[in-house]
Amino acid sequence: MSVNITMKVNGKSVTAAVEASTTLVEFIREHLRLTGTHVGCNTSQCGACTVHVNGRAVKSCNMLVAQAQGADVMTIEGLAAANGDMHPMQAAFKEHHGLQCGFCTPGMVMSACELKGKVTNPSDQEIRACLDGNICRCTGYQNIVTSVKAGLAAMS
């Protein structure tokens, strides 16, 4: 069964007819060709598919696209400035070696950006709690925590 959906993705209005069983991550990657959002586990365990829906970090593999009807969706591609400059959180991950293979990075960055405005000067423990559910298989998590602290400071 096909459903019609309308939403904003990275500030642009999108309308499409999709199968009712289509997940948000499938829609983002396959229909919109925004491949920065990764598919890792398809069970919401790894966090590689994290995007913002109405300003809240969600795992897009665990959400039907129809549930995002009328929503404002932001992917990792939408964080960068229109001129191509990296978002402060993206730049911090690069500068502080918060990534190696980069597979988990989009989800980590999107989850970390959600901390802005929620906690002032978060502790390592608060950052780790925010990133709980985002799995990295290559880096030391301390570099990720350092990157998040630097990114939040740059966003202030």
Helix/sheet category: alpha+beta
End-to-end gap? 46 Å
Residue share in helices?
25-40%
Total helical segments: 5
Keywords:
Ubiquitin-like (UB roll), globular, 156 residues, alpha+beta, 2 domains, DNA polymerase, domain 1
Characterize the structure shown.
The chain has 156 residues and is α+β, with helices and mostly antiparallel strands. It has 2 domains: 77 residues, Beta-grasp domain (Ubiquitin-like (UB roll), Roll); 68 residues, DNA polymerase, domain 1 (Orthogonal Bundle), CATH 1.10.150.120. 30% of the residues lie in helices and 17% in strands. It has 5 helices and 5 strands. A 5-stranded mixed beta sheet has the order 2-1-5-3-4, with helices on one face. β3 and β4 form a beta hairpin. α2 runs antiparallel to α5 and α3 packs across α5. It starts with a strand and ends with a helix.
Write the layout of secondary structure elements.
Layout: E1 2-9, E2 12-19, H1 24-31, E3 50-53, E4 56-59, E5 72-74, H2 88-95, H3 105-113, H4 124-130, H5 141-155
Parallel strand pairs: 1-5
Antiparallel strand pairs: 1-2, 3-4, 3-5
Helix pairs in contact: 2-5, 3-5
